[in-house]
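pasting for ref. prot 1 ->
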Amino acid sequence: MILLDEKGFSLISPLKRTWAPIGQTPRMRTSLNHHDRLNLIGALIISPQGRHIRLRVQSTTDNQTGEHVLKFLRGLLADISGPIVLLWDSAPIHTRHKVKDFIAAQSRLHVFDFPKYAPELNPGEFLWAQLSEHLACRAPQSIGELKVLVHMALQRSRVSRWRLEACLRGAELPWGRRASGYLFRTQ
């Protein structure tokens, strides 16, 4: 099973609470070029028996298009043997004609959409929350710095089964625990 989502990060970092001496408001300098973004397509990949979970991410500084989605899907199909169940939201780049035609031509690829306006069901959203937490109050000054910070945060999540499983536990999906793995239960 593959749980896919997209997210963009800009040079304006998210803020969170911090400590400062009384009367000295903390200040952060951010880049004036706030239009630069790092866009990610990420997937949590769960093995058929639910024993293994891993993360695959593709990044670009371009705006995400159907071509980026196709490149990501081609990589998944090349790396994973057997049938693939893909869950994602109904973002406009998923519904492009080229993407739909590609999916229709792939007998191994079975695609299902999360309900509209229900990000709480998508485990990918919890991955992005982990990255945003890591980026909070960092204030990168260039797209290069942003890339380094994002990739450090991705690596932190990638090597931690606990962090990846937290994405699954956070989503309000009917997960079942079996043989030390997570399996999606259908009604």
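and prot 2 ->
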Amino acid sequence: MGKFIVITGPSAVGKTVLVKTLLSKFPNSTRLVTYTTRQPRPNEKNGIDYFFIPRQDFSKRLDNNDFFEYAEVYGNLYGSSKKKLDELLGKFDYVFAIIDVQGAKTLKTKLPNATVIFISPGSISDIKTRLQKIRKGIPNDELKNRLTKAEYELTLAESFDYSVKNLEGQFETACNKVVELLQKEN
């Protein structure tokens, strides 16, 4: 049976890049692709980045108790499939997932054996800079909402198994720290 590793943290802290890197460092690993009702961003692909589904389909899955966690984030629903996770844990040594902070808190109560790693920035201004860079043209009200939420989420960092800082220009250091933590757990 594989280990379930959840990467969480505020917007723009490098969660997706981190998981892509971890997948290359752990040979028998995969990513649990989660479901969302939001529209794909440029370069995102259905079934690879997320399963992009209509709100009505998401609601049906909720009614059928298909998700082990779900959350509404910035007006969109996100959820993780119980069945798919069980299937992947039976095939891989590590199953990585990127789950927002709210969903990760719910998950930790339902799946206490999961390892949840909180990724944090050096500062809130780092998040602002990253958001403006990766989401060019982000409206000011959305930017403000994300920064306010990030400030709150940073207060929850210690409620997870581990907290790792991804400082600007030091991604490799953060990645190596996560690898070290996972190797220690074996």
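The chain has one domain: 3-185.
The mean pLDDT is 93.
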